[in-house]
Specification:
The complex is a heterodimer of chains A (about 270) and B (about 50). In chain A, about 70% of the residues lie in helices and about 0% in strands. By secondary structure, chain A is mainly alpha-helical. Chain A has a two-stranded antiparallel sheet with strand order 1-2. Chain A is elongated and about 100 Å long. With about 50 residues, chain B is mainly α. Chain B has a domain of about 35 residues. Chain B has one helix and no strands. The chains are: A mainly alpha (about 270), B mainly alpha (about 50). At the A-B interface, α1, α3 and α7 of A face α1 of B.
């Protein structure tokens, strides 16, 4: 299905692959919830609280790595003169908005796990603080995007902002190594890629990553389409108002040309 | 409600609401783009040549 604007030729397609990704994401999410809540056994130490770990790290992965990759990559490709296209700018903007939702969910699901396990909803731990900073920076990016400007100026401004935000991503990632944090480092998979969990838990964990990644792709695709449509409406309205202004000017010039010349004598003989 | 139930409910509900919002936004902008086409009459307006 597609929406076509015949005058400008702007087409905002709804590609079939995006629908397929969305459906697969929903199915994978359904299986993740079913396995995570009803099939997998309780953890030896955390009991049922470990079930939150089937969604929290997956959400955090999307918020941090997938969003960071698309936003920083898109912004770099926009700033690079040889690849400069509004496609990259729109993709980065779409990614940051979806990323803000996932960053907020990372903090919420983390707090819901931290309260019973750590005893606190929140602590000024390096991992938590840098993740909260990421969310704030993403909100700032979205505010910057709403500042009226020419599309090229807005795109350049936002690309620079996105690259500045991307500096926070390695800080979030390495925070558990650089500082002594309450948030643990990698516990599910050790540096030797040895998995420390039962097969049903491992598969559910992996499925959670796939489900949230597929949903991210679908949300990114739809948000990108919204961005394209917004720009197309803006262009269209600008074109209409310019043509109206042009026709008004033409009418004024025509009226002035056809008006009788003012008398210069003022009744003089 | 347990912490686990709350976590799953909040995550799934938030994503669902955000997805619905995005779909509605896309539909609204598609309509706006269609309406901004020159020569397109607003919905409910009499077509050209219709007897008034």
């Amino acid at each position: 299905m597609s929406a076509v604007t015949p005058r400008t030729g702007t087409m905002t397609r709804r590609p079939r692959w995006l629908t397929v990704v969305g459906v697969l994401g929903v199915v994978a999410m359904g299986f993740t919830v079913w396995l995570g809540l009803w099939v997998t056994p309780p953890d030896e130490f955390q009991g049922n609280l470990a079930r939150l770990l089937y969604i929290h790290p997956a959400i955090a992965t999307v918020a941090l790595y997938w969003v960071g990759l698309v936003a920083a990559g898109g912004s770099l490709l926009y700033l690079w003169p040889r690849t400069r296209s509004l496609f990259w700018d729109r993709l980065a903007a779409a990614s940051v908005e979806v990323g803000a939702v996932f960053a907020a969910l990372t903090l919420i699901t983390g707090a819901l796990w931290g309260r019973p396990v750590w005893g606190v909803w929140w602590t000024w731990d390096a991992r938590l603080t840098s993740t909260a900073l990421l969310l704030l920076l993403e909100i700032g990016y979205l505010a910057l995007r709403r500042v009226p400007a020419e599309p090229a100026i807005r795109a350049r401004r936002c690309a620079v902002a996105a690259l500045l935000i991307a500096i926070d991503i390695p800080i979030v990632h390495f925070s558990v190594d650089w500082w002594n944090t309450l948030h643990q480092g990698g516990t599910f998979i050790d540096p030797g890629f040895q998995i420390h969990a039962s097969p049903s838990m491992s598969w559910t964990f992996l499925l959670g990553f796939i489900a949230f990644s597929l949903l991210f792709v679908w949300l990114l695709g739809v948000r990108y389409q919204v961005e394209v449509l917004q720009d197309a409406v803006g262009d269209q309205e600008l074109e209409v108002s310019l043509s109206e202004r042009w026709s008004e000017d033409t009418e004024l010039v025509g009226a002035a040309a056809s008006a009788p010349a003012p008398s210069t004598g003022g009744g003089a003989p | 409600m347990s912490y686990v139930d709350a976590g799953y409910s909040i995550a799934l509900a938030t994503l669902f609401v955000y997805a619905v919002t995005l779909v509605l936004r896309r539909r609204r902008w598609e309509r706006a783009l269609h309406m901004s086409e020159p020569g397109v009459e607003p919905e409910g307006a009499p077509a050209h040549g219709d007897p008034s």
